[in-house]
Amino acid sequence: MRRFNNYFTAFHPIVYTLVFGVALARIATSMSMPFLAIYLGSTTGMSAMMIGLVIGMGSLASTVGGFIGGNLSDRFGRRIIMFISLFTWSAVFVLFAVAEHPILFMVLNMLNGLCRSFFEPVSQALMADLTEPERRYKVFSMRYFAANVGVAIGPMIGAFFGLSGGSSVFLITGGIYLVYAIVLVVLLNHFGIKDIEDAKKDSRTTIAAAWKVVRQDVALRYVLLGAMVVAIGYSQHTVTLSQYLKDNFVDGVQLFAVLMTSNAITVIALQMLCSRLMEGRSPTLGIHLGNVFFALGFVGFAMSDSWTGWIISMIIFTIGEILNYPSGSMLMDRLAPEHLRGTYFGAQSFGSLGHFIGPWLGGLILTYTGGGTLFTIMAAIALSASVFYSTAQRIFDTKKQVNVQSNDGVSGNL
Questions:
Q1: Is the CB of residue 162 less than 8 Å from the CB of residue 170?
Q2: Are 210 and 151 in a shared domain?
Q3: Which of 230, 307, 320, 342 could cross-link to 290 by cystine, CB 3.0-4.6 Å?
């Protein structure tokens, strides 16, 4: 019991609130957004191409929104950006339920993408602000665990409301965001977060100035390239994999559903264990190990011809996910200057370009070659991402060493 109590008093109460909020946000989003295409098709008469455009615009907006939202949080504080994004998010989902025109749906989904890209990096930055550097890996692992719990629960709720309740699922989602926003306002004010962030924010950090710093940070550039390459591979397991199984296996759709469930269960079962094993170690080690497991999972996909083989391969692939993503957040935290932490976390969204490239590239390879070749190529792509991360680490270490020597020189002169 004492160990249980210690675990839940180990971090700032706001950290736990934000972790819970991530789970709640993912439940709310995943109970509604997976059914948006069905909803648009049944209520608006949009063409499949138009529906795809509407949905894709949300991802496009979130790609650039993270950097902007993160920078604004460095200038004006984490609270105000999170409040704006949550209250706007709530209104967006309510309007989804009553909108009728395709252009309005497109605008709303762009706002949905912006709200997510504002809230999530800024909440990560606030978690880091409130946690000692040596304990941040556990915090990022908790956050990732909570996100996956939400993704596992949300679609089950949405399957009921989304298929039988029409627009009600969007109203419920909007209500969830509204309640959470109000609770967060109360708690952030109660725990004096304004005083903490007043000491950290820097009104001189304009978007132009932040972009100049980010653009000149070569290590960050390689990290974002690595994240983009990882995203190209990772996107296959939700997009191209479902098409391949549907077209090539009896009960392929059911197998895909089982694999998605296996993915969620593996994250929930192994996240904390992997967190304990990797805590205190180099984040690039976690990323490299994650990429190896990604590659092994892809090789398993290429070779599997039974449900057992597919499930084992998905478990291996998911271990890569568990290792890679929290380590990526930890690496970004180490790269970020103190006054630009929000900006750097927001810059992670540029790596999401891989989620645009991946489905297109995967579909192209699948069309002209086949599943075995596709997954083998993706294994090689996953491994190649480690080249970018290794380069980033080397550049960062060199820069750090130069700074230390420079400081030593100044101290000597004094």
A1: no
A2: no
A3: 320
Tell me: do 126 and 270 sit in the same domain: no
Distance CA 118, CA 112 (A): 10
- The answer to whether the CB of 348 falls within 8 A of the CB of 332 is yes
Give yes or no for residue 412 having a pLDDT over 50: no
Query: Which DSSP helix (H) or strand (E) runs through 388?
Result: helix 371-413
Q: Render pLDDT for 145-157 as a digit per residue (tens, 0 to 9).
A: 888 788 777 777 7
Taking only the tens place, the pLDDT of each residue in 317-355 is: 999 999 998 888 888 888 888 777 777 887 777 777 787
Residues 364 and 343 in one domain: yes
Distance of CA 276 to the CA centre of its chain: 21
pTM: 0.73
- Predicted confidence band of residue 373 (pLDDT cuts 50, 70, 90): very high
Helix, strand or coil, per DSSP, at residue 305: coil
Q: How confident is the model at residue 414 (pLDDT cuts 50, 70, 90)?
A: very low
Same domain, 330 and 363: yes
User: Strand, coil or helix: what is 249?
Assistant: coil
Q: What is the structure's pLDDT at 298?
A: 96
CB 89 within 8 A of CB 61: no
Choose the final residue of a domain: 171, 203, 235.
Answer: 203
Of 180, 203, 226, the residue at which a domain comes to its end is 203
User: How many domains are contained in the chain?
Assistant: 2
Dump the DSSP string for 122-179: HHHHHHHHTS-GGGHHHHHHHHHHHHHHHHHHHHHHHHHHHHHSTTHHHHHHHHHHHH
190 and 223 part of one domain? no
Alpha helix positions (H), 235-306 = 240-248, 252-278, 283-303
How far is 374 from 208, CA to CA, in rounded Å?
A: 40
Domain interval for residue 227:
205-401
Query: pLDDT tens across 159-203, in order?
Result: 666 554 567 788 888 998 999 999 888 888 887 676 555 555 555
**pLDDT at 202 (0 to 100):** 56
Cα–Cα dist 124/345, whole Å: 7
Radius of gyration of the chain from its Cα atoms, rounded to whole angstroms: 22
Q: Are residues 361 and 215 in the same domain?
A: yes
